Amino acid sequence: MLASTASPNPLLACKSNCLADQDNFQPAAVYIHAGTMAGRTIALIDDDEQIRASLQRLLAGFGYRSECFASGGDFLAAAGAWDCLVIDLQLGATSGLELAQHPAVQALKLPIIITSGTSNTALWKQALALQCAGYLRKPFDAKELLQALRRAGI
Q1: What are the structural domain ranges in the chain?
Q2: Please, how many CA atoms are within 13 Å of residue 51, restricted to the half-sphere of its CB?
Q3: Fewer CB in a 10 Å sphere around the end CB: N or C, the chain?
Q4: Distance CA 73, CA 17 (A)
Q5: Cα 41 from Cα 20, distance rounded (Å)
């Protein structure tokens, strides 16, 4: 349950499982300022349906709204008002790097958090060159995601 935003410094203690292994629940206490996420919407772009659903549940548990997209093309075809993009590095037909560099995405001027399960050093170097707000290697936990969102100002 979310803390009321009426309080000057509401802190919310939540437990969330590791995104990578739903069967091996490993709780981690995460403390966040509940007022910082009110009204924030995150666009989740990942070709893995389970990852999208897991991230969406996790973000909802912390008070964020999210919209999920299975591909870069799906995201580019959508109209929406987002506060941050969470993009998987390997999306299939269009890579997360290509999507992040797309003129329509650049025009949004939104913070971008890159996620990936790859250990491909060349891809990670390219992602780092984009100077995104965060880089998360899968599997990552709730605390890492929330820290990246905070660094992004979300």
Answers
A1: 37-151
A2: 22
A3: N
A4: 30
A5: 23
